[in-house]
Amino acid sequence: INDKGRIGWQNRSGYNQRSRVETQMGRWKAVIGSKLKARNFLNQKTEVRIGTYILNKMTELGRPKFEVVA
What we know:
This protein is mostly helical. The chain is built from three helices and no strands. The radius of gyration is 18 Å and the shape is flat.
């Protein structure tokens, strides 16, 4: 950390990706819950697909759209 600074360390170690994954898992647990409710595997797959669709839609709605102004 002392050689390249905190940002350099984060880029080299992959810390940024880890942080994004942890944030996304936290969102999943907050919105969907920490456990799957379905009991059989086919229904669990459906539950995960629905949850993924919901989180992707929420992420898309919260993302800013930029326009070039010149």
